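User: Need the bound-state model for 2-acetamido-2-deoxy-beta-D-glucopyranose:
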Amino acid sequence: NMTSKLLWASFILATLTFATPLSLHPDQQKVLLVSFDGFRWDYLYKVPTPHFHYVMKYGVHVKQVTNIFITKTYPNFYTLVTGLFAESHGIVSNDMFDPILNKSFSLDHMNIYDSEFWEEATPIWITNQRAGHTSGAAMWPGTDVKIHKSFPTHYMPYNESVSFEDRVDKIIEWFTSKEPINLGLLYWEDPDDMGHHLGPDSPLMGPVISDIDNKLGYLIKMLKKANLWNTLNLIITSDHGMTQCSENRIIELDQYLDKDHYILIDQSPVAAILPKEGKFDEVYEALAHAHPNLTVYKKEEIPERWHYRHNDRIQPIIAVADEGWYILQNKSDDFLLGSHGYDNALPEMHPMFLAHGPAFRNNFTKESMNSTDLYPLLCHLLNITAMPHNGSFQNVQDLLNSATPRTTPYMKSTTFLHGSIKPKEYEQEESYAYFIGVSLGSIIVIVFFVIFIKHLIHSQIPDLQDMQAEIAQPLLHA
Ligand SMILES: *[C@@H]1O[C@H](CO)[C@@H](O)[C@H](O)[C@H]1NC(C)=O
Ligand SMILES: *[C@@H]1O[C@H](CO)[C@@H](O)[C@H](O)[C@H]1NC(C)=O
Ligand SMILES: *[C@@H]1O[C@H](CO)[C@@H](O)[C@H](O)[C@H]1NC(C)=O
Ligand SMILES: *[C@@H]1O[C@H](CO)[C@@H](O)[C@H](O)[C@H]1NC(C)=O
Ligand SMILES: *[C@@H]1O[C@H](CO)[C@@H](O)[C@H](O)[C@H]1NC(C)=O
Ligand SMILES: *[C@@H]1O[C@H](CO)[C@@H](O)[C@H](O)[C@H]1NC(C)=O
Ligand SMILES: *[C@@H]1O[C@H](CO)[C@@H](O)[C@H](O)[C@H]1NC(C)=O
Ligand SMILES: *[C@@H]1O[C@H](CO)[C@@H](O)[C@H](O)[C@H]1NC(C)=O
Ligand SMILES: [Zn+2]
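Assistant: Bound-state model below.
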């Protein structure tokens, strides 16, 4: 009869009304890229890391990530957001000299704000913004530098004293604001800092890694609280690993070279040497066979696989230490127990890589990837056109949920309508979906009853029509 048809129509309408905001805008894929500096891939197994393992279990994990040479912080961070090798993005080290610009760049003195050093490439936040989106960065290296006349839409000026929690809170604020960002970049200094001071083999690194795991726990908690956990694509990675050094493995340049014959642009483990005028041969010869654990290259002889030749900021001679060896000019210079920067083929130089979100597969492990591949993956998720780069989207496409290509909407919200509420073993992961399912169900039932009662009242006591409309209205809008 008429009433039941109307009821069904109302039911379907109500369902659609309440389901619509849940079928998340497909064109609004959100990405949060997080880096814990110097988090070596195997730190995941050094002590219990339940939060990292939680992400792995419900997301993807890449066991071996080949980062770029040199395996230092700034070169690798710029690779993550450009997909380029160091020779192509121009940030060839943490300490550089550009002979054309006649300018220096130095992380030690935070002398990194000269735009010209960064402008051989265009980082992803700028490309994202040029495509009409907005980005937010919490201390990610380079995000407080003006590059091609722009900054990220939102960013925090670098200040290492700002807590992880404050950085997370800012990122969440930007993702949930009226004009939400689609790309967030979050950086934390550890375990790199402690890794340098303690050495990665120190038992004291255990608590340092546990602390990072707790920080990830805080991030997950806050993402869940903001209802972002199941809707944004979270990628957690790092720039490089760390290896143990020792005072017994020091290469002292003063023993082989006359200090007046060269300028040491970058020290260890890849000494960047600028010989003074007319001193090239003398410096090269003196160093070439100086130490069995030091390999010396003329710029044009640097191995092809490092893609570390074609840039003016790469000095005429580089001397690369074997893993665990430390280059000093003289023994009174600073020495650290942990170091990185070595050959990027060495497993200890490799970072970890995990991801979770609607675009990523569930409980999926991949053997290996190149860190240059992250950039095209990010561009795909953000639906922006990638700039020329050295990565390959195809090589990492298998990380993605093939059932959810970027052009189709995120469908999860429809599944609970079919009553596929998961049992308890799905733990917290499903609790958000469960909660929505239950809420949605309850709302539908309430709406159904309201409409049902409305019909009863309507058919039986037409006089109360006005009054009943007032009662029903607030409920329908709840
Ligand atoms: C991707 O971006 C293009 C414009 O560059 C737009 O036409 C298209 O709708 C977007 N696709 C999605 C799924 O957002
Ligand atoms: C390079 O800059 C230094 C000062 O930083 C200056 O003394 C020197 O003359 C400059 N060299 C050239 C070739 O301009
Ligand atoms: C850096 O952050 C700390 C902690 O929030 C704050 O006390 C300090 O004033 C900040 N420094 C600068 C230069 O903003
Ligand atoms: C250092 O050099 C010695 C002698 O060539 C070699 O046996 C050793 O393996 C080297 N150390 C490393 C870490 O490569
Ligand atoms: C070591 O080098 C520093 C500067 O690099 C210099 O001040 C110091 O005198 C040197 N020490 C020795 C023993 O040569
Ligand atoms: C994840 O996958 C592994 C095998 O790859 C399987 O043994 C494990 O039970 C899976 N875990 C979950 C929670 O699905
Ligand atoms: C990494 O890139 C190189 C080419 O630069 C390629 O030969 C190799 O297969 C890539 N590795 C992975 C795991 O995709
Ligand atoms: C890396 O990509 C840049 C930009 O497309 C290109 O100029 C460069 O030749 C590439 N490097 C290699 C080794 O393919
Ligand atoms: Zn470091």
